[in-house]
Structure formats: C-alpha cells, structure tokens
Amino acid sequence: MHQMIISAATEAAPNPLIPNPWEMGVVLVGFAVLFYIVVKFVVPMFEKTFAERAEAIEGGIAKAEKAQAEASAALEEYKQQLTDARAEANRIREEARAEGAQILADLKEKAAAESARITAQAHAQIESERQAAVVSLRSEVGTLATTLASRIVGESLSDDARAARVVDRFLADLENQNAGVAQ
C-alpha cells in the first residue's frame, strides 16, 4: 500500500491552475443553457416591463402636461372672468350712482315743486285773509267814520248811499295822504 502511495506521489501531479477539460465542457454547456434561457425568456420580460414603465412614465408626463395646460387655461379663464366681474361691478356701481343722483335730483325737484306749491298756496291764503281783513276793516272804519262824521257834522248819515259815499271819500283821502307820505 505504501507502494501505491509512493507511486502515486511520484507520478506527475496535475497542475491546479489548468482546469479539467470535462469540467470546462460541463460549465460551458450549463452557461450556454442558462444564457439561452435568460436571452429567450428573462430579457424579453425585462424589456416588456421596461417598455411598460417607460410608457407609463411618458403617459404620466403627458397627462401632467395636459393637466398643466388645462390648469393654465382654467387660470386664464378665471382671471378673465374675474376681470369681467370687476368691470361689471364697476359698471353696476356707476349705474347705481347715476340712478341715485337721478333719484336725488327728482326728489329735490319734487320737493322744490311741493315747496313752491305750498308757498303759493300760503301766499294765496294770506292774500285772501288780507282781502277779508281789508273788507272787514273798511266796513268797520266806514261805520266808525259815519258815526264820527254824524257827530261832527251834527246831522244823521243814516242813508246808506250817502254813508257809502262819505266812507269812500274818506278812505280815498286817507290813501292819498299815505301815498304822499310814502313818496
């Protein structure tokens, strides 16, 4: 037995750096089979997944750009509506001011007309009361003047026509004296 060990030891020992050809063949065949499976099945799946993700990302970007464009359009439309609303509010405010000024002018005009009517009515009433007072005073002055004249003259002025003439002459003389003093 020792002999075998010695003879095995004396035989040339294989170089550990050089691989066994059978081992290399099996590894190459296994590598080729594994390479075929990866190229045939795994790589297409990765490509398909990559394409789907790229498409989803590009679709998402497109959707985001579309949403951004819609948002920009909506913002512009909102700004336009806001501008229109402000212009409409200003127009309504100006119309209300003009209408208020017109109503105020109408009310002032009505108040002035009512004031003029009341003033004219008051003047007419005052004039009619003055005329009534003048008539009343004339009759009282006439009666007093007739009584006084009858006492002074010493004769009765009971005749209405004569008394009216005396009263009228007395009042005319009185008015002439007042007119002369006023000048």
How would you characterize the overall build of this protein?
The protein is an all-alpha fold and 183 residues long. The protein is 90% helix and 0% strand. It contains three helices and no strands. The chain has helices spanning 2-10, 21-153, 160-182. Helix 2 (21-153) packs across helix 3. The protein is rod-shaped. The termini are far apart.
Main features:
rod-shaped
Instruction: Provide the succession of SSEs.
Output: HHH
Helicity, as a percent range: over 70%
What is the helix tally?
Answer: 3
Ranges with pLDDT <50 over ≥5 residues?
A: none
How much strand?
Answer: under 5%
Please count the beta strands (DSSP E, at least 2 residues each): 0
Nearest-integer average pLDDT: 84
Rg, Å, rounded: 67 Å
Globally, the shape reads rod-shaped
Main beta-sheet strand count, sense and barrel state: none
Termini separation: 185 Å
Class derived from helix and strand content: mainly alpha
Task: Describe the structure concisely.
This protein has 183 residues and is mainly α. Helices cover 90% and strands 0% of the residues.
Q: Which SSEs are present, and which pair or pack?
A:
Elements: H1 2-10, H2 21-153, H3 160-182
